[in-house]
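Researcher: Re-running this chain for the archive, since the previous output was lost when a drive failed. Same request as before.
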Amino acid sequence: MFEIDVQGQRVPALGFGTWQLAGEQAREATRHALEIGYRQIDTAQMYGNEEEVGRGIAESGVARDEIFLTTKLFKENLAGERVGPAVDESLRKLATDHVDLLLIHWPNEDVPLGETLAAMRQAQDAGKVRHVGVSNFKGPLLLEAMEHATILADQVPYQPGTTQNTLRRIAAEHDVLITAYSPLRGDGMQSPALAEVAAAHERTIQQVALRWLLQQDKVSPIPRSADPDHRRQNFEVFDFELSDDEMDRISGIRVG
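Model: Regenerated structure tokens:
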């Protein structure tokens, strides 16, 4: 499994997202993803599936210390006094004593960013959280967050046809991971350029889109799929490589 080195932390390059997976489907998908070889699992309080994700991890037989586990604080849990109890609840549901990465899921203008991050650092100091980060933060807000804590990652939508050039530049300057969610969604997936590159490699367009993200510096896609075959196909992206020209063609896709 390929890994990305960020701030001295080794993060599995390809993750498995669990957004929109619920109940037994979330449990089974998590278990199966780990059996395939995924070692980065992403969930969130808002998804309502932390308990099932935790069960899937337990049933996979994969040792907890081999898994990079991320969850995210619900928008209503960002006040300083609510962060600690919310973290404890997530750990209980996930049946673990720590998460590897805790994110602010969405910015909340009603709560000072420094207040939230200070409480997240307390959870970090207590050993319940190994790293902190943010999600859906644009460049200026990411820079503000870095004034209050060491930010490991910013999780944002990123797929062919969606540019994240400004954010990627800031992240590169500060050694921050860009976690690409919904990497296989969007109108860019219908681009002829993507289809042509996929045909040249005898791969699916989904595999090529993931490979395009993986070949960018410190970018980690986290595709979600309820289909076992698609989960397996999405993981089979480490045995081919896109040329510089192919990377540029996909980066040049524009939609809308």
